[in-house]
Amino acid sequence: PLALGLYTVNAIYGDTITMPCRLEVPDGLMFGKWKYEMPNGSPVFIAFRSSTKRNVQYDDVPDYKDRLSLSENYTLSIRNARISDEKRFVCMLVTEDDVSEEPTIVKVFKQPSQPEILHQADFLETEKLQMLGECVARDSYPEGNVTWYKNGRVLQPVEEVVVINLQKIVDKSTGLFTMTSSLQYMPTKEDANAKFSCIVTYYGPSGQKTIQSEPVVFDVHYPTEKVTIQVLPQSSTIKEGDNITLKCSGNGNPPPQEFLFYIPGEAEAIRSSDTYIMTDVRRNATGEYKCSLTDRSMMDSTTITVHYLDLQLTPSGEVTKQIGEALPVSCTISSSRNATVFWIKDNTRMQTSPSFSSLQYQDAGNYICETTLQEVEGLKKRKTLKLIVEGKPQIKMTKKTNTNKMSKTIVCHVEGFPKPAVQWTVTGSGSIINKAKETKYVNGKFSSKIVIAPEENVTLTCIAENQLERTVTSLNVSAISIPEYDEPEDRNDDNSEKVNDQAKLIVGIVVGLLLAALVAGVVYWLYVKKSKTASKHVDKDLGNIEENKKLEENNHKSET
């Protein structure tokens, strides 16, 4: 490289400067010398080398003590390059007849340290010009320049908005420069999270270069421009019994720490932090809620609806009614929105609501009216009706001849609640029959039956008794040998009476025929005799068919 047409050597600060003597060695060379020129042009010799004796001598120059080295080809090396080494050096080759000179310019370069942003502001305030910080780059040569950047774009000076001041200080002992650039800045709200940095531009041996500082983000303070109120937790629905929190926030930085809350039913605003807690809210908490800054300058509002669900069951609890009575039942709902109602009886969902114009035993049970509020999770109510249907014992007796023609089944059909106790007796003798079988008690009904094989006409009595009443009903049963119309078990009482009348008529006809065919006196005597002994031939349980057969055989022998 050339400087003003002269040969130039570029050196890095602290490295070794190497300057070749760019003259051809002439014949008859006596010695070679190096010198540098003072600013006033006067020479200072620093090194000498003889071509014959091969010895090297260095002049007593303090700046170059122990730093010089002159090679055989007269190349001069200077160790630990300094800024003061930037001079014009001259190589001289001397013969007996001539002196040849060739100058070399030395340029020294020093890269500055990475710039740092020092004395940073703790925070920036909008609408206020303030010192943001100082960008410092040290130990540069030659001097460099500093440029400020925001988000990667150059900050240009703007009066009262961007003010930049650059200072360059040189260290007299080293000759190195320190550049300090201060930045005064008026931020806006948009400068929150903005990245500020600075770049130092300097010159090196190969040309212009740059080094960038680490970016810095400043906390920008700005006033609140908007207040917002919200309800926590952020559920779409609120129901009675919930806990809710009102949170008020401002968009300033730093955000406001205190607010005024306006609560329905409260005459004065409530001063609080940014939250206001409401526990176990009721339906009367429904309304408009507001919050504002403490100076009431800004306000926001929200509407809260507290959903509720009331259920009134009439009647409820345990209710006892008599069979056949009417019982109006109503399940009334009061709610904040449409509710779904359904009924459950004895753990089974009902298709329709219960209605009782004439209570029956099967109507008894546990009824539940349950309601839920649509789209409100967890809001459900239920009430229970335990219905007891009581009734005095009702009896209907039926009889039928079994298929083997050897016995008859007598059934006592009983209704009533509480469940009646049933007892069988033989009318006249008062004998109690203990071998009755009962069916399952369902919906207030069950049956008690006995199996007998009577040789003579008998009258059986069925007694049903509960806490309400004692009911007694009797039924005439003909002997096995006497044909009669059997009654199906499902006939009603009127039919039973008619069948009994028919049976009595048939018996009378049969007896009349017998009286006509036999001697009246003999027949009457036999009939009286049998009537007196009739009860002796009926076993106490009237169900032992084998013993009845034996009695029949004995009676037959007696008649004979």
Automatic annotation (TrEMBL):
Topological type in the membrane: Single-pass type I membrane protein
GO biological process: adaptive immune response; cell adhesion
Organism, as annotated: Anhinga anhinga (Anhinga)
Primary location recorded for the protein, binned into one broad class: membrane
Gene Ontology cellular component list: axon; dendrite; plasma membrane
Subcellular localization(s) per the UniProt record: Cell membrane; Cell projection, Axon; Cell projection, Dendrite
All residue ranges annotated as the Ig-like domain in the record: 103-212, 223-305, 324-386, 393-473
Annotated protein name in UniProt: CD166 antigen
SUPFAM superfamilies tied to this protein: Immunoglobulin (SSF48726)
Keywords: Adaptive immunity, Cell adhesion, Cell membrane, Cell projection, Disulfide bond, Glycoprotein, Immunity, Immunoglobulin domain, Membrane, Repeat, Transmembrane, Transmembrane helix
Entry superkingdom: Eukaryota
Bilayer-spanning residue ranges: 505-527
InterPro entries reported for this sequence: CD80_C2-set, Ig-like_dom, Ig-like_dom_sf, Ig-like_fold, Ig_sub, Ig_V-set, Surface_Rcpt/Adhesion_Mol
Pfam families: C2-set_2, Ig_2, Ig_3
PROSITE patterns attached to this UniProt entry: IG_LIKE
